[in-house]
Amino acid sequence: MYALAERAQIMELVQTLPDEQIHYVLNIIQSLPQKAATPRCSLRGRFANYANPSLRAKEKEAWAIAAE
Fold this sequence. Notes:
Elements: H1 2-16, H2 19-31, H3 43-46, H4 53-67
């Protein structure tokens, strides 16, 4: 809820700024270093080392049947 209020305040502020100031602010924001996306790890990948190999073989077989 608070984020929506902030967004509304920002939109009101942006509407009052001249185009040159908006352009200046956008250039500053774009020049900031972007945070690299961290690779997401699924539960399947995270716990693959702990799974029983025979269960994984059955799972692969089930997926192959489902894909057909």
